[in-house]
Amino acid sequence: MSASLERFTAQSLSDSICEAIQRDGAAIVEGLLPLDVVARVNAEVEAAVTAADPGEALFNPIMQAFHGPFTKQVAGMPGLSPTFAVDIMCHPLLLALCDRILAPSCARYQLNLGHLLQRGPGSEEQWLHRDEAVWSDVPRPAPELQLATVIAFVDFTRDNGATRVVPGSHRWPDRELSPAEQVTRAAPAPDQIAYAEMPAGSAVVYTGGTIHAGGANTTETQRRGAHLSYCLGWLRTEENNYLSTPPAVAARLPRIAQELLGYAVHDSIPRGGGYLGMVRMQDPVELLARGEL
Asked: Which of 2, 83, 152, 273 is most enclosed, with most CB atoms within 10 A?
């Protein structure tokens, strides 16, 4: 018998969801997105998904092995899909969770990356991992660096590759080790792994310290989902969002989206710190509003 995750609805109080995430490392929110939002995003990126080549050379060969030969990736979703940028990246519930989990440790949190992942038939189980390993040089112990979510764009089942999550792994002692040392840990037992089976429009939300991975797709259908994550504003993001959503595109988005994409100063002066990300000693989001970027 496998482990399980607590389930909520999009109308649930963010405090209750946050408590579950802090306790278990993850939670499922059913019906996060209306199906018409899912349909609009699918329509806006369908051409990009069709053109995506799973065999395209990536910047590091390990990344190709990590994703496998049957996964189509569409990166930079906020720059390709206005619906993704507004209705998903800026979703009030996701931002409310970021307010509770990330905001205590930074002046402003930001989008880390926003991708669409389509795991096709034949996809094998992804390596179990912690997303926060990308910031391996941050000394431990550390505050929560990241909050992430995988959103189902089709119904997720165990057979088609529903995300696997290890509840409670954000509290395991090995989290304090370096990522290189963590790989020597014993693999989680089958009964420690939960499967985020959920209908389209639902999401599994988890911290950067929670062990998880994509599941194997043993069906004949595509398993399409969105992966987006937020991180502390003083960290370097996995995706260069200024290039994937350049100023000409960002200028057409609401200010909150621009801020999440990094077009705003991380101003810690009121917190007794400094500032990051200025342009000409000004806040670039203001320059963007005036058409000066």
From this structure: 152
Distance CA 16, CA 30 (A): 14
- Each domain of the chain, given as residue ranges in start order, spans 7-240
Asked whether 228 and 81 are in contact (CB, 8 A), the reply is no
CA 234 to each of CA 106, 111, 113: distance values in angstroms, whole numbers, following the listed order? 7, 12, 15
Quick one: 7-240 is in which CATH superfamily? q2cbj1_9rhob like domain (2.60.120.620)
Euclidean distance between CA atoms 158 and 195, whole angstroms = 6
**The pair of three-digit structure tokens given for residue 31, joined into one six-digit string:** 């019906």
Would you say the C-alpha torsion 78, 32, 164, 46 has a positive or negative sign? negative
User: What pTM did the predictor assign?
Assistant: 0.95
Cis before 141? omega within 30: yes
Q: Tell which residue, 216, 214, 241, 212, has the closest CA to residue 132.
A: 212
Give the distance, in angstroms, between the CA of residue 195 and the centroid of all CA atoms in the same chain.
Answer: 17
Length of the chain: 293
* Geometric angle at alpha carbon 214, from 211 and 218, rounded to 5°: 140
d(CA 150, CA 44): 19
Per DSSP (E only), the strands in 66-222 are 71-74, 109-119, 146-152, 164-165, 194-195, 203-207, 212-213
